[in-house]
Amino acid sequence: MYPTRSQSRLLMDCLIGSRLIYNEMLQAAKVNYEEQGRFLMKYELQSKFKGRGGDVVPAMVVQDMADRLDKAFRRFFAKGQLGESTGIPRFKTPNRWHSINLRQHGHDFSLEGNRLVVPKKLGGSIKLKLSHPLEGAPKTCHLVLRADGHWYALIVCATEEQSKCPPRCKHKEIGIDVGLKSFLTDSKGQTVENPRYYRNSQKKLRVKQQSICRRKKGSRRRRKAAKEAAKVHLKIARQRRDFHFKTAKQYADKYKLIAVEGLNVASMVRNRCLAKSIYDAGWNQFILILKHKAESAGHQVVKVNPAYTTQRCWKCGELVQKSLSVRTHVCPSCGYVADRDVNAAKNILARGKIVVAKKAGAQPSTVKPSVGKVRLRSCR
After folding, report:
1. pLDDT at position 166
2. Where are the alpha helices (DSSP H) in 186-219?
3. Domains of the chain: total
4. What pTM was computed for the model?
5. I want to staple 57 with a disulfide (CB 3.0 to 4.6 A). Which of 53, 203, 285, 304 is the partner?
6. Nearest-10 crossing angle of helices 220-254, 202-214
Protein backbone atom coordinates (compact mmCIF):
# COMPACT_ATOMS: atom_id res chain seq x y z
CA MET A 1 0.00 0.00 0.00
CA TYR A 2 1.05 3.60 -0.59
CA PRO A 3 -0.69 5.68 2.10
CA THR A 4 -0.16 9.41 2.47
CA ARG A 5 1.44 10.84 5.60
CA SER A 6 -1.92 11.47 7.23
CA GLN A 7 -3.14 7.97 6.32
CA SER A 8 0.07 6.42 7.69
CA ARG A 9 -0.48 8.29 10.93
CA LEU A 10 -4.06 7.02 11.20
CA LEU A 11 -2.95 3.43 10.51
CA MET A 12 -0.21 3.65 13.13
CA ASP A 13 -2.60 5.17 15.71
CA CYS A 14 -5.04 2.30 15.08
CA LEU A 15 -2.25 -0.26 15.39
CA ILE A 16 -1.12 1.18 18.74
CA GLY A 17 -4.67 1.63 20.03
CA SER A 18 -5.78 -1.89 19.04
CA ARG A 19 -2.83 -3.41 20.89
CA LEU A 20 -3.70 -1.53 24.05
CA ILE A 21 -7.35 -2.61 23.84
CA TYR A 22 -6.29 -6.24 23.27
CA ASN A 23 -4.14 -6.11 26.41
CA GLU A 24 -7.04 -4.59 28.35
CA MET A 25 -9.29 -7.41 27.15
CA LEU A 26 -6.77 -9.99 28.30
CA GLN A 27 -6.43 -8.27 31.68
CA ALA A 28 -10.22 -8.19 32.09
CA ALA A 29 -10.42 -11.90 31.24
CA LYS A 30 -7.75 -12.74 33.82
CA VAL A 31 -9.44 -10.63 36.52
CA ASN A 32 -12.75 -12.36 35.82
CA TYR A 33 -11.01 -15.73 36.14
CA GLU A 34 -9.61 -14.77 39.56
CA GLU A 35 -13.02 -13.61 40.74
CA GLN A 36 -15.40 -16.14 39.14
CA GLY A 37 -13.13 -18.96 37.98
CA ARG A 38 -13.80 -18.49 34.26
CA PHE A 39 -12.41 -16.37 31.43
CA LEU A 40 -14.47 -13.84 29.50
CA MET A 41 -15.12 -15.12 25.99
CA LYS A 42 -15.97 -13.57 22.64
CA TYR A 43 -19.43 -12.03 23.06
CA GLU A 44 -18.80 -10.97 26.65
CA LEU A 45 -15.65 -9.14 25.58
CA GLN A 46 -17.45 -7.49 22.65
CA SER A 47 -20.20 -6.26 24.96
CA LYS A 48 -17.78 -5.06 27.63
CA PHE A 49 -15.53 -3.14 25.21
CA LYS A 50 -18.21 -1.81 22.87
CA GLY A 51 -17.36 1.74 21.80
CA ARG A 52 -13.88 1.65 23.34
CA GLY A 53 -12.19 2.33 20.01
CA GLY A 54 -13.06 6.03 20.09
CA ASP A 55 -11.79 8.09 17.14
CA VAL A 56 -8.82 5.76 16.55
CA VAL A 57 -9.95 2.12 16.35
CA PRO A 58 -13.02 1.12 14.24
CA ALA A 59 -15.72 -0.93 15.92
CA MET A 60 -15.16 -3.96 13.67
CA VAL A 61 -11.47 -4.06 14.69
CA VAL A 62 -12.50 -4.16 18.36
CA GLN A 63 -14.87 -7.05 17.58
CA ASP A 64 -12.11 -8.84 15.70
CA MET A 65 -9.72 -8.53 18.67
CA ALA A 66 -12.34 -10.13 20.92
CA ASP A 67 -12.59 -12.95 18.38
CA ARG A 68 -8.79 -13.34 18.27
CA LEU A 69 -8.54 -13.54 22.03
CA ASP A 70 -11.45 -16.00 22.16
CA LYS A 71 -9.66 -18.28 19.68
CA ALA A 72 -6.44 -17.99 21.70
CA PHE A 73 -8.27 -19.14 24.86
CA ARG A 74 -9.95 -22.01 23.00
CA ARG A 75 -6.57 -23.22 21.69
CA PHE A 76 -5.24 -22.97 25.24
CA PHE A 77 -8.12 -25.12 26.58
CA ALA A 78 -7.86 -27.66 23.74
CA LYS A 79 -4.13 -28.21 24.28
CA GLY A 80 -4.69 -28.51 28.01
CA GLN A 81 -7.26 -31.27 27.47
CA LEU A 82 -4.79 -33.12 25.26
CA GLY A 83 -2.19 -32.95 28.00
CA GLU A 84 0.16 -30.70 26.04
CA SER A 85 2.19 -28.12 27.94
CA THR A 86 1.14 -24.66 26.80
CA GLY A 87 1.09 -21.14 28.18
CA ILE A 88 -1.86 -18.81 28.66
CA PRO A 89 -2.28 -16.02 26.04
CA ARG A 90 0.24 -13.26 26.69
CA PHE A 91 0.12 -9.49 26.66
CA LYS A 92 1.30 -8.09 23.33
CA THR A 93 4.35 -5.84 23.14
CA PRO A 94 4.86 -3.47 20.16
CA ASN A 95 7.24 -6.00 18.59
CA ARG A 96 4.51 -8.66 18.65
CA TRP A 97 1.65 -6.64 17.15
CA HIS A 98 1.89 -5.72 13.47
CA SER A 99 -1.52 -6.20 11.85
CA ILE A 100 -5.06 -4.81 11.66
CA ASN A 101 -7.74 -7.28 10.58
CA LEU A 102 -10.77 -6.34 8.46
CA ARG A 103 -13.15 -9.28 8.36
CA GLN A 104 -15.93 -8.55 5.86
CA HIS A 105 -15.57 -7.53 2.22
CA GLY A 106 -18.04 -4.86 1.17
CA HIS A 107 -18.56 -3.70 4.74
CA ASP A 108 -15.11 -3.37 6.36
CA PHE A 109 -13.16 -2.97 3.12
CA SER A 110 -13.58 -2.97 -0.66
CA LEU A 111 -11.45 -2.69 -3.81
CA GLU A 112 -12.06 0.09 -6.33
CA GLY A 113 -9.49 -0.09 -9.11
CA ASN A 114 -6.09 0.65 -7.63
CA ARG A 115 -7.58 1.88 -4.32
CA LEU A 116 -8.35 0.00 -1.12
CA VAL A 117 -11.36 1.53 0.63
CA VAL A 118 -11.22 1.11 4.42
CA PRO A 119 -13.00 2.92 7.29
CA LYS A 120 -12.26 6.63 7.61
CA LYS A 121 -10.52 5.99 10.93
CA LEU A 122 -7.92 4.05 8.92
CA GLY A 123 -7.52 6.59 6.16
CA GLY A 124 -10.46 6.03 3.80
CA SER A 125 -9.26 5.34 0.25
CA ILE A 126 -5.61 4.15 0.15
CA LYS A 127 -3.55 3.71 -3.01
CA LEU A 128 -2.79 0.05 -3.67
CA LYS A 129 -0.60 -1.90 -6.07
CA LEU A 130 -1.55 -5.55 -6.52
CA SER A 131 1.31 -8.03 -6.76
CA HIS A 132 -0.92 -10.23 -8.96
CA PRO A 133 -4.61 -10.31 -9.96
CA LEU A 134 -6.99 -11.61 -7.31
CA GLU A 135 -8.47 -15.07 -7.87
CA GLY A 136 -11.88 -15.72 -6.36
CA ALA A 137 -14.08 -13.62 -4.11
CA PRO A 138 -12.31 -11.43 -1.48
CA LYS A 139 -13.26 -12.38 2.07
CA THR A 140 -10.93 -10.78 4.61
CA CYS A 141 -8.07 -8.29 4.57
CA HIS A 142 -5.08 -7.93 6.89
CA LEU A 143 -3.21 -4.63 6.97
CA VAL A 144 0.35 -5.52 7.98
CA LEU A 145 3.28 -3.27 8.90
CA ARG A 146 6.54 -4.98 7.90
CA ALA A 147 10.04 -4.35 9.24
CA ASP A 148 10.90 -2.32 6.14
CA GLY A 149 8.41 0.34 7.29
CA HIS A 150 5.88 -0.29 4.48
CA TRP A 151 2.22 -1.26 4.88
CA TYR A 152 0.92 -4.30 3.01
CA ALA A 153 -2.62 -5.55 2.41
CA LEU A 154 -2.98 -9.35 2.57
CA ILE A 155 -6.32 -10.17 0.95
CA VAL A 156 -7.78 -13.64 1.51
CA CYS A 157 -10.03 -14.91 -1.30
CA ALA A 158 -12.38 -17.88 -1.55
CA THR A 159 -11.60 -19.97 -4.63
CA GLU A 160 -13.33 -22.95 -6.19
CA GLU A 161 -12.09 -26.40 -5.27
CA GLN A 162 -9.64 -27.70 -7.86
CA SER A 163 -10.57 -30.87 -9.69
CA LYS A 164 -8.45 -33.87 -8.78
CA CYS A 165 -6.03 -35.41 -11.21
CA PRO A 166 -7.71 -38.13 -13.35
CA PRO A 167 -6.61 -41.75 -12.73
CA ARG A 168 -4.87 -41.98 -16.11
CA CYS A 169 -3.00 -38.74 -15.76
CA LYS A 170 0.15 -38.50 -17.87
CA HIS A 171 2.06 -37.11 -14.90
CA LYS A 172 4.09 -39.55 -12.81
CA GLU A 173 4.88 -40.02 -9.11
CA ILE A 174 7.97 -38.90 -7.24
CA GLY A 175 9.44 -39.10 -3.76
CA ILE A 176 11.29 -36.21 -2.12
CA ASP A 177 13.85 -36.44 0.68
CA VAL A 178 14.72 -33.09 2.28
CA GLY A 179 18.12 -32.59 3.86
CA LEU A 180 20.83 -30.16 4.88
CA LYS A 181 23.67 -30.90 2.47
CA SER A 182 21.23 -30.67 -0.43
CA PHE A 183 17.90 -28.97 0.18
CA LEU A 184 16.13 -31.92 -1.44
CA THR A 185 16.83 -35.05 -3.43
CA ASP A 186 14.10 -36.79 -5.42
CA SER A 187 13.67 -40.43 -6.40
CA LYS A 188 14.89 -39.69 -9.93
CA GLY A 189 18.31 -38.67 -8.61
CA GLN A 190 17.86 -34.92 -9.11
CA THR A 191 19.04 -32.60 -6.35
CA VAL A 192 18.35 -28.97 -5.40
CA GLU A 193 21.18 -27.16 -3.67
CA ASN A 194 20.60 -25.68 -0.23
CA PRO A 195 20.88 -21.85 -0.57
CA ARG A 196 21.56 -21.28 3.18
CA TYR A 197 20.28 -17.71 3.19
CA TYR A 198 20.67 -17.23 6.94
CA ARG A 199 24.20 -18.64 7.02
CA ASN A 200 25.25 -16.38 4.16
CA SER A 201 23.83 -13.30 5.90
CA GLN A 202 25.32 -13.97 9.32
CA LYS A 203 28.24 -11.57 8.81
CA LYS A 204 25.86 -8.72 7.99
CA LEU A 205 23.59 -9.65 10.91
CA ARG A 206 26.56 -9.71 13.28
CA VAL A 207 27.41 -6.11 12.37
CA LYS A 208 23.79 -5.00 12.86
CA GLN A 209 23.49 -6.76 16.23
CA GLN A 210 26.74 -5.26 17.46
CA SER A 211 25.41 -1.84 16.47
CA ILE A 212 22.32 -2.43 18.64
CA CYS A 213 24.44 -3.47 21.63
CA ARG A 214 26.50 -0.26 21.43
CA ARG A 215 23.39 1.93 21.67
CA LYS A 216 21.87 3.05 24.94
CA LYS A 217 18.74 1.15 25.93
CA GLY A 218 15.56 3.08 25.22
CA SER A 219 17.27 5.59 22.94
CA ARG A 220 16.12 6.62 19.48
CA ARG A 221 19.39 5.40 17.92
CA ARG A 222 18.89 1.93 19.44
CA ARG A 223 15.38 1.69 17.95
CA LYS A 224 16.81 2.77 14.59
CA ALA A 225 19.55 0.12 14.78
CA ALA A 226 16.97 -2.53 15.71
CA LYS A 227 14.95 -1.63 12.61
CA GLU A 228 18.04 -2.10 10.45
CA ALA A 229 18.59 -5.58 11.89
CA ALA A 230 14.91 -6.40 11.39
CA LYS A 231 15.21 -5.46 7.72
CA VAL A 232 17.98 -8.04 7.26
CA HIS A 233 15.84 -10.73 8.87
CA LEU A 234 12.92 -9.73 6.66
CA LYS A 235 15.06 -10.02 3.53
CA ILE A 236 16.26 -13.49 4.58
CA ALA A 237 12.66 -14.64 5.16
CA ARG A 238 11.60 -13.29 1.75
CA GLN A 239 14.52 -14.96 -0.01
CA ARG A 240 13.72 -18.29 1.62
CA ARG A 241 10.02 -18.04 0.83
CA ASP A 242 10.69 -17.10 -2.78
CA PHE A 243 13.04 -20.09 -3.13
CA HIS A 244 10.41 -22.41 -1.63
CA PHE A 245 7.72 -21.18 -4.02
CA LYS A 246 9.90 -21.58 -7.11
CA THR A 247 11.08 -25.06 -6.09
CA ALA A 248 7.59 -26.26 -5.12
CA LYS A 249 6.11 -24.99 -8.39
CA GLN A 250 8.45 -27.18 -10.45
CA TYR A 251 7.39 -30.37 -8.67
CA ALA A 252 3.71 -29.52 -8.20
CA ASP A 253 3.12 -29.05 -11.94
CA LYS A 254 5.03 -32.12 -13.14
CA TYR A 255 3.97 -34.91 -10.76
CA LYS A 256 0.51 -36.14 -9.78
CA LEU A 257 1.76 -37.79 -6.55
CA ILE A 258 4.51 -36.27 -4.41
CA ALA A 259 5.56 -38.28 -1.37
CA VAL A 260 7.40 -36.45 1.43
CA GLU A 261 8.47 -37.30 4.97
CA GLY A 262 6.21 -36.30 7.85
CA LEU A 263 9.06 -34.77 9.86
CA ASN A 264 8.73 -33.66 13.47
CA VAL A 265 10.91 -30.56 13.16
CA ALA A 266 10.16 -29.44 16.74
CA SER A 267 11.96 -32.54 18.02
CA MET A 268 14.77 -32.38 15.47
CA VAL A 269 15.83 -28.86 16.45
CA ARG A 270 16.58 -30.08 19.97
CA ASN A 271 19.91 -31.11 18.48
CA ARG A 272 21.78 -27.87 19.12
CA CYS A 273 24.41 -28.74 16.51
CA LEU A 274 21.84 -28.87 13.68
CA ALA A 275 19.08 -26.54 14.89
CA LYS A 276 20.30 -23.44 13.05
CA SER A 277 20.70 -25.32 9.76
CA ILE A 278 17.27 -26.93 10.10
CA TYR A 279 15.57 -23.58 10.73
CA ASP A 280 17.53 -22.08 7.84
CA ALA A 281 16.23 -24.76 5.45
CA GLY A 282 12.58 -24.17 6.45
CA TRP A 283 11.27 -27.66 5.65
CA ASN A 284 7.81 -27.14 7.17
CA GLN A 285 7.17 -23.98 5.16
CA PHE A 286 8.31 -25.69 1.98
CA ILE A 287 6.00 -28.67 2.48
CA LEU A 288 3.02 -26.38 3.17
CA ILE A 289 3.73 -24.42 -0.02
CA LEU A 290 4.25 -27.64 -1.98
CA LYS A 291 0.90 -28.98 -0.75
CA HIS A 292 -0.88 -25.75 -1.70
CA LYS A 293 0.69 -25.67 -5.17
CA ALA A 294 -0.06 -29.34 -5.78
CA GLU A 295 -3.72 -28.92 -4.82
CA SER A 296 -3.97 -25.94 -7.17
CA ALA A 297 -2.70 -28.17 -9.98
CA GLY A 298 -5.08 -31.01 -9.06
CA HIS A 299 -2.23 -33.14 -7.72
CA GLN A 300 -1.57 -34.71 -4.32
CA VAL A 301 1.10 -34.50 -1.60
CA VAL A 302 1.33 -37.44 0.81
CA LYS A 303 3.25 -37.50 4.08
CA VAL A 304 4.79 -40.82 5.10
CA ASN A 305 6.47 -42.18 8.20
CA PRO A 306 10.14 -41.12 8.02
CA ALA A 307 11.42 -44.01 10.15
CA TYR A 308 14.33 -45.91 8.53
CA THR A 309 13.86 -44.36 5.08
CA THR A 310 17.61 -43.67 4.94
CA GLN A 311 18.75 -46.87 6.60
CA ARG A 312 16.63 -49.38 4.71
CA CYS A 313 17.69 -50.64 1.28
CA TRP A 314 15.16 -49.81 -1.42
CA LYS A 315 15.96 -52.94 -3.47
CA CYS A 316 15.81 -55.70 -0.88
CA GLY A 317 14.60 -54.05 2.34
CA GLU A 318 17.75 -54.85 4.31
CA LEU A 319 18.44 -52.49 7.21
CA VAL A 320 21.87 -50.90 6.67
CA GLN A 321 22.95 -48.69 9.58
CA LYS A 322 24.91 -45.57 8.60
CA SER A 323 25.88 -42.29 10.27
CA LEU A 324 25.25 -38.81 8.86
CA SER A 325 28.83 -38.66 7.53
CA VAL A 326 28.25 -41.69 5.28
CA ARG A 327 26.77 -40.29 2.05
CA THR A 328 26.59 -43.51 0.00
CA HIS A 329 24.23 -46.41 0.57
CA VAL A 330 25.95 -49.78 0.03
CA CYS A 331 23.78 -52.83 0.69
CA PRO A 332 25.78 -55.92 1.77
CA SER A 333 22.81 -58.17 1.00
CA CYS A 334 21.94 -57.33 -2.65
CA GLY A 335 24.88 -55.11 -3.59
CA TYR A 336 22.72 -52.08 -4.39
CA VAL A 337 24.81 -48.88 -4.38
CA ALA A 338 23.30 -45.39 -4.51
CA ASP A 339 23.45 -41.99 -2.90
CA ARG A 340 21.87 -42.25 0.55
CA ASP A 341 19.37 -39.46 -0.23
CA VAL A 342 18.29 -41.08 -3.51
CA ASN A 343 17.76 -44.37 -1.69
CA ALA A 344 15.69 -42.56 0.94
CA ALA A 345 13.61 -40.77 -1.71
CA LYS A 346 12.76 -44.09 -3.37
CA ASN A 347 11.70 -45.54 -0.04
CA ILE A 348 9.53 -42.47 0.57
CA LEU A 349 7.86 -42.87 -2.83
CA ALA A 350 7.16 -46.56 -2.17
CA ARG A 351 5.53 -45.76 1.15
CA GLY A 352 3.57 -42.92 -0.44
CA LYS A 353 2.03 -45.28 -3.00
CA ILE A 354 0.99 -47.64 -0.22
CA VAL A 355 -0.62 -44.78 1.73
CA VAL A 356 -2.58 -43.67 -1.35
CA ALA A 357 -3.72 -47.23 -2.05
CA LYS A 358 -4.99 -47.62 1.52
CA LYS A 359 -6.86 -44.31 1.36
CA ALA A 360 -8.50 -45.43 -1.88
CA GLY A 361 -9.76 -48.58 -0.12
CA ALA A 362 -7.42 -50.93 -1.97
CA GLN A 363 -5.10 -53.40 -0.33
CA PRO A 364 -1.35 -52.66 -0.39
CA SER A 365 -0.91 -55.74 -2.59
CA THR A 366 -2.76 -53.99 -5.43
CA VAL A 367 0.14 -51.55 -5.78
CA LYS A 368 2.55 -52.43 -8.58
CA PRO A 369 4.77 -55.11 -7.01
CA SER A 370 8.34 -54.33 -6.06
CA VAL A 371 10.71 -56.19 -3.79
CA GLY A 372 11.61 -53.05 -1.83
CA LYS A 373 7.97 -52.08 -1.34
CA VAL A 374 7.04 -55.52 -0.01
CA ARG A 375 9.73 -55.27 2.64
CA LEU A 376 8.72 -51.72 3.52
CA ARG A 377 5.25 -52.88 4.51
CA SER A 378 6.70 -54.97 7.30
CA CYS A 379 9.03 -52.29 8.69
CA ARG A 380 8.16 -50.34 11.82
Report:
1. 65
2. 197-200, 202-214
3. 2
4. 0.82
5. 53
6. 160
C-alpha–C-alpha distance, residues 295 and 302, integer Å: 11
Q: At what angle do helices 220-254 and 283-296 cross, to 10 degrees?
A: 50
Cα–Cα dist 183/205, whole Å: 23
The answer to whether residues 290 and 251 touch, using CB atoms and an 8 Å cutoff, is yes
What pLDDT is attached to residue 376? 31
> Per-residue pLDDT tens for 39-66?
888 999 999 999 888 889 999 999 999 9
Which domain does 37 fall in, by range?
A: 5-158
By CB atoms closer than 10 A (0-12, 13-18, 19+), residue 309 is: buried
136: left (phi over 0), alpha (psi -120 to 50) or beta: left
The set of residues, in sequence order, having a beta carbon less than 8 Å from that of 361 and lying 6+ positions away, is none
CA dist., res. 49 & res. 124, Å (int): 24
**CATH classification at residue 285:** 3.30.420
Q: CA-CA distance, 354 to 335, in Å (whole number)?
A: 25
Q: Are residues 260 and 334 in the same domain?
A: yes
